[in-house]
Design a protein that fits this description.
Blueprint: H1 2-24, H2 32-35, H3 43-46, H4 49-52, E1 83-84, E2 89-94, E3 100-101, E4 110-113, E5 119-126, H5 132-135, E6 140-143, H6 147-154, E7 171-174, E8 183-189, H7 190-193, E9 198-201, E10 212-217
Parallel strand pairs: 1-4, 2-5, 4-10
Antiparallel strand pairs: 2-3, 5-8, 6-7, 6-9, 9-10
């Protein structure tokens, strides 16, 4: 009787232990990794082609080439013709504006001397009104290359010396200095200027720049 009761107790104990093992076993862990999709979606790849690619910047419009404008040619300055003497003399005039003119008031850049003349006379008249000390004029003959030197040397002579160095060997011929309303003459030996390269000019300081011309023998 005791053995039977003991066996029954052992059986109940085994049954109780079996139930406890079943209730205390942890629940199986779900394989979440397996449930995840194989690949993550690419938000850029899923966009339409027009949205995924950056917008292309428009090409700049071509700049129209402006043709170069050629400058207009500069007008050619008209040169007064040479004054040809009809005989062995020429009437030359000077003004208060520091110019040499002919009887008609035209500029005289050159006087052509006839080669048949032995002497050539220039009759000079100052048609202005200013006095000799302020706007005196004369007519000096010298080689073209000596004009500057003759003018520079004559400055020391002053107006009383007609702005010419006394006995200057570079001077072929010269008139006296005159003021407004006065006249004078100068006689030029043609043989001395026949070789060419001679000028006529005013030796008053600063005047030869404008009052300057050529003597040509033909």
């Amino acid at each position: 009787m005791k053995k039977t009761a003991l066996a029954s107790l052992l059986l109940l104990a085994l049954v109780a232990c079996s139930k406890n093992e079943q209730t205390t076993q942890p629940a199986p862990v779900e394989n979440k990794v397996a449930e995840q999709p194989a690949t993550q979606p690419n938000p850029v790849a899923d966009l339409p082609a027009a949205q995924s690619a950056p917008a292309a910047e428009p090409a700049p419009a071509p700049v129209a080439e402006t043709p170069a404008v050629e400058p207009a040619p500069a007008p050619v300055a008209e040169t007064a013709p040479a004054a040809t003497a009809t005989g062995c003399s020429f009437d030359l005039k000077g003004t208060d504006t520091m110019t040499y003119t002919d009887a008609a008031g035209k500029p005289v850049p050159e006087i052509v001397v006839p080669a048949s003349c032995q002497d050539f006379t220039i009759n000079f008249e100052h048609t202005g009104k200013m006095p000799k000390a302020a706007m005196g004029h004369n007519v000096v003959i010298a080689k073209s290359a000596d004009v500057k030197a003759v003018s520079a040397a004559g400055v020391k002579a002053g107006v009383k010396g007609d702005y010419l160095q006394a006995g200057d060997p570079k001077v072929v011929a010269a008139s006296k200095m005159v003021g407004g309303g006065e006249k004078t003459t100068v006689k030029v030996p043609v043989a001395k200027i026949k070789e060419g390269g001679y000028d006529f000019f005013c030796s008053f300081p600063g005047h030869e720049i404008k009052m300057h011309g050529k003597l040509t023998v033909k």
